[in-house]
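User: For my dataset I need records formatted as: sequence, then structure tokens, nothing else. Please produce one.
Assistant:
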Amino acid sequence: MQEEESNKRWKRFLSGDNDAYSWLYNEYVQMLFRYGLRFTSDSELIKDCIQELFTTLYKNRKHLGLPPSNVKVYLFVSLKNNLIRAMERLSRFESMENEMDTFLLEPTVEEQYIDDESYRNRREMVDKILNLLTPRQKEIIYYRYIREFSTNEICSLMQLNYQSAQNLLQRAVKKIREHFHPENTDK
């Protein structure tokens, strides 16, 4: 239902309807922001990339052509590409800042004791799971179980065919189950 409305608004936006453009922005901006948090915790960078995405869409609307088959996936892929480009540009500076932050912000002994034990246990479990998976497996798990995308949407985002997406997801889930099955609690 939302996709039908999005496609109608997209067509109106392409023909110059600024209300349709505003609707698209308002409909997707929060989803895009949450999605951007998957790639970086830098909220200002995410906001900048979303702004760049919509500015580029507006400037190039006469050259965009037909609506994409799925407006939401199209916007997500576009934001992902914008973020990757922006992070590559900033990577030199961020790595230097991260090294400095690590050095300067070492927690005190008191702060370490204040940490909640249950949080540390959950964090360790998540880290163990994530360390098992390849980057692509992490990405597909995120799309399927956190963002709750359909397999077809995931195929578009990850540029996979349907069977490859199914296989990748099944291998990731199988790997998690094998290592965290109740009989394997010693791992």
